[in-house]
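Table S7 (text form). Paired inputs.
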Amino acid sequence: MELKDLSSNWKKLQATLEAEKTRSLKRKASDDILQPQKNGIKRVKATVKPPPKGTKKLDNVQGKRMGVVASYLKPAAPSASLALWAEDNDIPAKDLAAAYGTSSGTSSLQPFKQGDKINEGLSSTADAGKYISIDCEMVGVGPVPDNESALARVSITNYHGDQIYDSFVQPKEAVTDYRTFVSGVTPQLLQGSRTFETVQADVAALLQGKILIGHSVKNDLEALLLGHPKRDIRDTSRHPAYRQVAGGKTPGLKRLAKQILKVDIQGGEHSSIEDARATMLLFRREKDGFEREHQKRWGAPRNTENSADAEKGRARTKKKKKAKK
């Protein structure tokens, strides 16, 4: 099919994909991986697992992140960012699959948004809007780091997946396990990072008056030592339709992304920005269901404008009564 015969949204997608192809490869990853210990950093040899079926070996491929050797790559596929953009522009999933040469039944989350600014803090360009999605990364602290965690990164996106906030956090306790394989956090990334108090204040300000979307969001709020009205929370791990995926138990975000969104996430190091986007996409996919469940528990949504008018009316009534006296 020729480009002139495609829809305007398809043309946008084609232009976006063409820009994606021009991205330069990042610096070559080392064969060594830094493993933090209590008394310093131990250098150990990385273990490279055999490639999954369907992958092709690429020569001179540079690792995407420090500490990760990328000798094998899966075929290019839509990302959570691209999926949100496509949904906003009414582009069917089958068109995305055709553009990437993959089946419409599966895809892999790869970074897409060129505007992401790691550790930027509060975005100076994106609007938060009514709905925001949060995801955090943790590191291990204390003598048993598998059992004790501290906040190391916070990412927040808006309804359309735009980055609203992203910051690394300086833990108050000594880090005994950076969990780099999963968290993507390294000693270098935490050097000069924002203090816990600064990040806590930034996030608290963003939460004011917002509907908060998250996956097991209670853990994120506890790590930040913050609260949020329960009626203003939409948790994808507690949504009945999604719990059915796990036989009534709490489903993992990775599992939901695979079975509901048909995308793969968290294959190695986590990206809290992409995880927040995947969580928002899960909410959007089942938004009406979320609101029905919410209304069962909390009743009709609060109308802030009507509440304000009612409050003004009560104030006027009080003034009139005082005047009569």
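Next pair, protein 2 of 2.
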Amino acid sequence: MLFQTITTALFLATTLAAPTEPTLFKRAPGSLIAMAPKSKSCAGAKFPKECATAAQAAPFINASFKTYGVATAGEAAAIISLMAFESGDFQYNMNHFPSPGRPGQGTRNMQMPPFNLEYAKSIPALKDGLAKAETDVKKVLELLLSKGEYDFGSAAWFLKTKCSEKVRSGLKTGKTEAWKAYITECVGTEVTPERQAGWEKAAKAMRVSGH
């Protein structure tokens, strides 16, 4: 599969080149800003050093889809809506709430420290850094936040490595009930009106079939 990043970087689209695979995302590109409205700008962001705009986020998100085999609009919408919800539309990448926040929790899908350590261990380039960080959860998170590809790649990694085949297959249908299973059975939290509103925005922007 060949994924192509839209050069305007304000749109997130995926183009499949392999003729033996079904055509995916054959539609107008979904606007990342429509999915995460605050990502239009970082002006006035409470945590400006952590904030990323849609233009900055889009290439890293597309790269994560290629790396971790995210190949359907339903999966993509679920991942983006999760990141947007957990990071305030990419406004921050560390847990700050309630103040002072939970040490070591972060990346754009706000992963817990044990998952961050496992994720970091899966990245060969971080091997030496991890040896120095040892069990310091803050240092591990710092390694993951050192590059946008790691920061924005965690949600796709989590889907691939922590979600059951049943959940992933469900997301591919684009149905809201499948998304709810993703949130409760894989992410391990409750479906709330706010989370569902984010999913609805992402599914609409990505033109998820079956939704």
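Confidence is low (pLDDT under 50) at residues 1-30.
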